[in-house]
Design a protein that fits this description.
The complex is a heterodimer of chains A (344) and B (185). Chain A is α+β, with helices and mostly antiparallel strands and 344 residues long. Chain A has 10 helices and 18 strands. Chain B is built from 8 helices and no strands. The two termini of chain B are 26 Å apart. Classes of the chains: A alpha+beta (344), B mainly alpha (185).
Chain lengths: 344, 185
């Protein structure tokens, strides 16, 4: 520390040499911090505590992801540079198509696997607590949430429907194809059909929903389903969704409601937004994302409703913020597969 | 600290080589700094996809301009500064995009949360609730300065360059922030 600088809390904290000394557990000593400590114990301890606490977690993207970004860039360095064009969202009316075509395309893609390399189908899957970004051959991008699986063709022909099948949850940003080929997301529950738009699809064992951020989409069912919209129930084979509309399965019926889309897709930013969510629903989400079964100390706990935003980048921070969230809940680890919610 | 200097020194050499058109060196620079640029971009505008697109454009432009670039002493600070400028430019140009806080003055912009800190539960001698509340009181530019200093290990001179603020106001701003946060410890 320079002579003209007085030893204050702020000066110590900002001093790189002091930071290094504290972080080395006060071993390194390129300036005489020990002597300074002798004269200013309280202040130095206080500043040291700040430095030890105020350390950011270093975040790192997976190496593969950076490599992937580099390969994308590399191809542009050698090719003539094309300017980025903003995707236009189609407002055209929809041409009805038969959902059965989806099945045909899927069968075709798997049977041509050995015959034609171009028709190879790719499966990508995420583990518990993991997310993955990918770009499809048509430049559309997909972000896969934890514990999810997606299958798609390595390359589509210009005129064919672009179909992917999904188990789990994914957010799609679909670019309109030059030949206006439809993009389809097939799930166990329904098929979502689009031209070019941004939307979230969730299709897990016990839940299913679609939320539209931008554009317009059509959701097809294999057979007639009950649809509840604006308080009335109808039997339908397909449903149109507009931005901020959500289609959600609950007790064998589909509900169409208007929602805050950013809450639904908060997982893209590694967050979970709770809006009068019951603890039992939260437990189910934790099971989907991290694979832990959750039991409750008492039955009443299950129906407690909570609000707020929780971090989901890892299980530890998620659980910690539930405990610290003022909901009166403590979490015990029963074993490697099980957690227990108990009253604080 | 020695390690940081080695990286800084190696980067200067890579930079020279990249300017001469060495794609290998460019690739190294890309891979070394992508992470920090990406997470800084996320801090500024929040959307993964937009940040990645912008980074692609940023590096393409860097490659195209390589012959006109000068030698620089601190590669990381230079990259952060130019990328920040690029993000600001796009966000102000493209008003339709849901991007927030073009000038980082808006309350909804640059966020720091205590969840981002390494906190050992056992020696919790500070008040985390209070820290949370105090973090909230910091303004955008204080948060950004703290992030650049403590997350990216940049010094005040670099931070002043990056944010376009005067050296002394960066220091004052940091001083005020630290004074405020002190209450939590």
């Amino acid at each position: 520390m320079k002579n003209n600088e007085t030893i204050t809390y702020e000066n110590l904290i900002e001093n790189p040499s002091f930071q290094a000394w504290v972080l080395s557990d006060r071993v390194s000593n390129d300036e005489n911090w020990v002597a300074i400590y002798a004269d200013n114990q309280e202040l130095v301890d206080e500043a040291a505590l700040f430095i030890q606490t105020f350390q950011f977690k270093k975040k790192a993207l997976p190496v593969q992801e950076i490599d992937f970004e580099w390969s994308k860039l590399e191809s542009r360095l050698t090719l003539p540079i094309t300017k980025k064009s903003t995707p236009k969202i189609s407002r055209r009316l929809w041409i009805r198509r038969i959902a059965a075509a989806v099945a045909v395309v899927l069968v075709a893609s798997s049977s041509f696997f050995f015959l034609n390399k171009k028709n190879k189908s790719i499966v990508q899957a995420t583990d518990f607590g993991e997310q993955m970004d990918m770009t499809l051959s048509d430049a559309s991008s997909v972000k896969l949430n934890a514990n999810s699986k997606i299958e798609f063709k390595e390359k589509w022909n210009e005129s064919e429907d672009r179909t992917v099948s999904l188990k789990g949850e994914a957010f799609f940003n679909i670019k309109k194809s030059p030949s206006k080929a439809t993009f389809k997301v097939a799930t166990d529950y329904f098929t979502v059909e689009v031209l070019g738009t941004q939307f979230d699809v969730l299709a897990r064992e016990d839940k299913a929903s679609v939320v539209l951020k931008e554009g317009k989409i059509k959701v097809w069912f294999d057979k007639t389903v009950e649809l509840v919209a604006n308080g009335t129930t109808t039997s339908v084979k397909s449903v149109d969704l507009l931005p901020n509309e959500c289609l959600k399965l609950s007790n064998q019926k589909y509900y169409k409601t208007t929602v805050n889309t950013s809450n639904h897709i908060a997982w893209l930013d590694k967050k979970l937004v709770l809006n009068n969510t019951t603890l039992s629903n939260l437990a189910s989400i934790i099971k989907d994302l991290y694979g832990y079964e959750i039991t409750f100390q008492t039955k009443e706990l299950q129906s407690i409703q909570i609000n707020g935003t929780l971090p989901i980048q890892n299980l530890k921070s998620l659980l910690l913020s539930i405990e610290k969230g003022g909901f009166g809940i403590s979490i015990q680890k029963v074993n490697e597969k099980q957690l227990k919610f108990v009253k604080q | 600290m020695a390690k940081t200097n080695n990286i800084a020194e190696a980067s200067r050499l890579l930079w020279k080589s990249f300017k001469k058109g060495n794609q290998q060196a460019f690739s190294q620079l890309f891979k070394v700094y992508y992470n920090d640029l990406y997470y800084y971009g996320i801090k500024l505008i929040g959307q993964d996809e937009v940040v990645k697109d912008e980074l692609q454009e940023f590096f393409v432009e860097l490659w195209e301009r390589r012959a006109n670039l000068s030698d620089i002493s601190h590669v990381k600070a230079y990259l952060i500064k130019s990328f920040r400028r690029k993000l600001l430019k796009t966000t102000t140009q493209n008003r339709k995009s849901p991007v927030i806080n073009a000038e980082f003055k808006d309350d909804s912009g640059f966020e720091l949360s205590i969840e981002e800190l390494i906190i050992q539960d056992e020696n919790r001698t500070f008040n985390s609730k209070k820290l949370k509340a105090l973090m909230f009181k910091l303004n955008q530019s204080q948060k950004e300065i703290i992030y650049l200093k403590f997350y990216n290990n940049l010094d005040y001179k670099d931070i002043a360059e990056i944010t376009g603020l005067k050296y002394q106001s960066v220091r004052n701003s940091m001083h005020k922030a630290l004074k405020l946060l002190r209450e939590a410890f």
